[in-house]
Specification:
Helix content: 40-55%
CATH topology of the largest domain: Aldehyde Dehydrogenase, Chain A, domain 1
Strand order of the largest sheet: 10-9-11-8-7-12-13
Largest sheet: 7 strands, parallel
Oligomer: single chain
CATH superfamily of the largest domain: Aldehyde Dehydrogenase, Chain A, domain 1
Number of strands: 16
Number of helices: 15
CATH class of the largest domain: Alpha Beta
Length: 439
Amino acid sequence: MKSLFASQGDAANAKILNQKIMSLQKYCQDVAQRAKRASAQMATVTGAQKNGWLRSCAALLTTQTPELIAANDLDIAAAPEYGLSDAAVDRLRLTPKRIAEMATALEEIAMFPDPIGQVIESSVRPNGIEVQKVRVPLGVVFFIYESRPNVTSDAAAICVKSGNAVILRGGKEAKHSNEAIVQLLSQATVQFGLPADIVQFVTTTDRDAVGLFLGMPEFINLAIPRGGAGLIRRVAADAKMPVIKHFAGNCHVYIDRDADPDMAETVLVNAKCQRMGVCNAAESLVVHADVAASLLPRLAGALIERGIEIRGDDTTCTIVTQAKMATDDDYATEYEGPIISLRVVNSLDEAIEHINRYSSQHTEAIITRNIAAAREFAARIDSSAVMINASTRFNDGGQFGLGAEIGISTDKFHARGPCGINELTSYKYVVYGNGQLRE
């Protein structure tokens, strides 16, 4: 009798679980279908309509800053239960300054020319047909991201400006902030004739929803994960549609034998310390042996003064007594915190070899007064961005003049580096004729 009751209980639990799965599948499919319809409706939306929406959203972010901060306070209060690090809490936090920057980014995106319909190339063939290569939207973007609610408005703005619908799946740790932001963005859609479902936020925190969306290539054209390496690897493995991604930001600063000492110190400190929890912060320092004895004490002192732990090779530990011995794993690690790896090299060749071995192909910098060395470094380093006498922190859509970015790609196919408006478009060929026939 006991086993009968147990089997009946198991059957009941299985039924409940099945209903839950079916309900989640229905929800995800409904969101994806509505996004697909919205993306099709965008074909007749003008640049003026999109720009009006962007400027209206910027104004709403500014006027409703207190409400956004109140929503963010709920997420900050809940951060300890998610075990967030100090760097993660910093990424999660909204301040009046960050909200003002969000609004400014939307205003800047509105000032960019509308990419949709732009003729990229055009030619007239000998038979008289005109062949145009015309920029078009990708369709529907599924954007999965963690912690940073300011990314919500950037992603929505870039997708809409480039004529795409976007499905936003933020982390549960930023749920209240993200919902408040998307509610503001949605207020202005109807006013400017945009489809109501052009920006949608995934309200369920069920992690299975991500897998369901990633299995819908019939509705979703592109997936973009932005967060930890675990999230990005899962999306890259499970997605049935193309993915724009970078796995890590193991960025290097190389101090060449011909580096200006003052510049070397200020650029290094900015690259490592200005904001440690972001993907374009420096994680590794490489120094030419010819200047190691004279310059390393100064560079190390500047880092140690700011609470940075140094993990270096034998030469480093001999010159900098506070340094700890580095392991091979240290050189491959994105710390996102107050640790930096350090290697002393005997040549530019050795520096480039070391960086290309351990780099995540995100951002590398060289500090040098030797233009030939700078050019060789730029040519041979295999990363999405190379900085010459400038901080790695500049690898950013806003800093590059893109207005904002939806992410940084370390891939080489379709898009590389900061992904802005143009990177979320494709093209099609439009041919004009006057009755020509192929013979």
